[in-house]
Write a structure and sequence with these properties.
Order of helices and strands: HHEEHHHEEHEHH
Number of strands: 5
Shape: globular
Structural class: mainly alpha
Radius of gyration: 16 Å
Number of domains: 1
Distance between the termini: 39 Å
Strand order of the largest sheet: 2-1-4
Length: about 200
């Protein structure tokens, strides 16, 4: 059987189990967000998925309502002023990504793959084309994320996504998931705010 078919089956099983077993945590986060600030609990944003197909990625809302919804965080001048108190913890711990289990169940994402790109990041999408990285399912975590996360510039991120495509398979996905747990403790890898050199080589 083609690995991508096996990957899809595993995605559905573990996404469903994740939603069931993490439901108390999801409820707690929902309550904290509602107590902390006004607005919806879930944030929806257009992203490019596999084959450049646009879908709405789901996250727990970490920003105040007045924050521009279609602007990537790294392009904001003063992101710290836009992030809610609960949002700061959710972003540092990546717990804001948990609603993407629903995206995985719907087939819009996988657990492992190149991260879905914000529609304004055309340069990254074009760079990924060079490595065929737009042809595989996008992921909750990926090879580029565990090799620098927000610190990786566009061309290097695309190269790392291409490296994932070359090595895609059960052990590569397992390695990505295993290393993701470690990278979550590296708070320096999370960069908030405008990065002038982000698109340099």
């Amino acid at each position: 059987m083609n690995y991508l078919k096996i990957k899809r089956i595993l995605d559905v099983i573990f996404a469903l189990l994740g939603l069931i077993f993490l439901s108390p945590l999801l409820l707690l986060i929902t309550i904290l967000i509602k107590l902390d600030s006004q607005g919806p609990v879930i944030f929806r944003q257009k992203r490019f998925g596999q084959h450049r197909k646009v879908f709405y990625i789901l996250k727990f809302r970490t920003m105040k309502l007045e924050t521009p919804s279609e602007v990537p965080t790294f392009l904001l001048e003063n992101p710290e002023e836009c992030i809610t108190r609960t949002g700061k913890y959710l972003r540092k711990s990546s717990l804001d990504e948990l609603p993407q289990l629903v995206n995985i169940l719907k087939g819009e994402m996988s657990f492992v793959g190149p991260r879905p790109v914000v529609c304004q990041e055309i340069s990254l999408i074009e760079e990924r084309d060079r490595y065929h990285a737009n042809e595989v399912p996008v992921g909750l975590t990926g090879w580029a994320q565990i090799n620098g996360r927000d610190q990786v510039k566009t061309k290097e991120k695309a190269r790392l996504d291409g490296e994932y495509v070359e090595k895609i398979g059960f052990w590569m996905d397992f390695k990505c998931l295993l290393l993701t747990a470690t990278s979550l403790f590296n708070k320096d890898a999370v960069v908030e705010g405008k990065q002038d050199d982000f698109f340099e080589e």
